[in-house]
């Protein structure tokens, strides 16, 4: 098409100011042929502009924000994700997980992914050690099952696991790290069971030598997370579960810097008796964590998500329809 | 203080979900001793969470956003500021300028700074050439004055100027660039006058080989800006004016990708007659741009900003007081 033909279809963008900029950005963005991303961008521009209006944001403050986000992006690499950390510490990650992965009663709750998940994972078999480079770590035997909401075991579930060593560091945070350690994936057996030998996780501060650390300091907030083990459980047909187990009684149990702790994910450390020690080939008295994960079917999750979305948005006064499980405006 | 003493003052963060996460993030952030940044963070978290709620943002969409912002930060360097470009293309930059630099009638309007402003500028004297490495550029004589709202000339104003060459590139975009070109600063003379020789600017696409370019493509938007010259005028006692002059009749006059064009900033290209040619040492027929800038005093700008802020926020239902010219909640 000729430029003049294309331009004729655009709104006339001239003399924009605080009173008319928002509607004009909406207008020029409304040519987006994808209804979902059009809706997302409309809401993004709305809230971004309302934020500037509510605060009467100054040019200096705007520039400080630009620089903060730029630094947050620049400090990211293959093994550090500061933008996720920012989302975590502002409560956005927990909110999105809660919206996108609603859990019916009786199923295992999800929580924040955190910035230390990686895709380079060794496969381990049941009973394997997952931590090698941590001589001071207190050994722990972790014994789990995976079931559906009808208490039927699910075999063939891929379980990703990652945890800190006894100093509170993930492998990717250690300068001496070359191969993945304290992380792996396993597959649940025909009884839906999986078990491994790790170390007792400890509470640790999230990385606070970067922009997010500066922000927490400004907010007079501490950077600590209570001790936990991360899990992702996935199998086609089931809603992918991103979760973690937290050690009950941790100093930071009710002040997690990233808002992840849930009562149903708090676990006690027990000790292996003779029978357990024999069965899992560990010493009597070894620390033990037991947990039974319950997955929701993809279909049930999709329906619950769509139902929640429609109800929540109608409460907010938005008339929506659900396409591919996600809401878009319902325009007559 | 003992950790237990510090922690006792915190809200109990446990079992957070879509219904209660926002108030708890507000609570933990409310220990910030600085009232202004506390207010900004409260509004930021509010709108960030409302955005996720309005859209029922999915984990995949959240991750796409995280990656987009990460890439936007990572592509930035000393000479490319993609985060500013993002703000510009979403209309935020224009909005913030409009809020923070209100212009009373009769004064020159501001507009977007854009991502190509640099701090490394040669000083030029009146009549100097500011563009050297552009043999194909059409020469233009730019003759300006700076006055206050009472039409009194202002001497000693620092004027920063930057423009594209005839290919639509700023110096920092050229691979062969080593020293600043097409940019400088000058000081207005005792008559408030300044003049220089540049090239006629041309319309150009903003950098669209990065994340912002992808976003514009998704939005079916073109990346073009109409031809313009950038100016920053500053002198203690006056509100710093970030502005630009746009060539009237440009193809993109009413569809600027960053929403910057204002009728009062549109200028005609004229031609030097014999008298002008003689006075400014250019050939007869040389293209000429004339403009008279009008600056507002810092005091007047501050008062207008405070008045606008109070009115706008009361209209939004926020009870505020103004501290250092910026609003914070007025809590009895």
Write the layout of secondary structure elements.
Two copies of one chain form a homodimer.
Chain A: H1 3-8, H2 21-29, H3 35-55, H4 59-74, H5 82-89, H6 92-100, E1 139-148, E2 158-163, E3 183-187, E4 193-199, E5 204-205, H7 211-218, E6 224-225, E7 228-234, E8 241-247, E9 266-267, E10 270-271, H8 274-280, E11 287-295, H9 298-315, E12 320-323, E13 326-329
Parallel strand pairs in A: 1-11, 8-9
Antiparallel strand pairs in A: 1-4, 2-3, 2-7, 5-6, 7-8, 10-11, 12-13
Helix pairs in contact in A: 2-3
Identify low-pLDDT runs of chain A: none
Q: Globular, elongated, flat, extended or rod-shaped: what is the shape of chain A? A: globular
The multimeric state of the shown protein is homodimer
Instruction: Summarize model confidence as the mean pLDDT of chain A.
Output: 93
Largest sheet properties of chain A: 5 strands, mixed
Which class best fits the helix and strand makeup of chain A?
Answer: alpha+beta
CATH H level, superfamily name of the largest domain in chain A: Aromatic compound dioxygenase
Helix content of chain A: 25-40%
Sheet with the most strands: spatial strand order of chain A = 3-2-7-8-9
Strand content of chain A: 15-25%
- In total, the number of strands of chain A is 13
Rg estimate of chain A, integer Å: 24 Å
Order of helices and strands of chain A: HHHHHHEEEEEHEEEEEHEHEE
CATH architecture designation of the largest domain in chain A: Sandwich
Number of domains of chain A: 2
Q: Largest interface, with Cβ-Cβ < 8 Å?
A: A-B, 94 and 93 residues
* CATH class categorisation of the largest domain in chain A: Mainly Beta
Distance between the termini of chain A: 30 Å
Please work out how many helical segments of chain A DSSP would assign: 9
Which fold name is given in CATH as the topology of the largest domain in chain A? Protocatechuate 3,4-Dioxygenase, subunit A
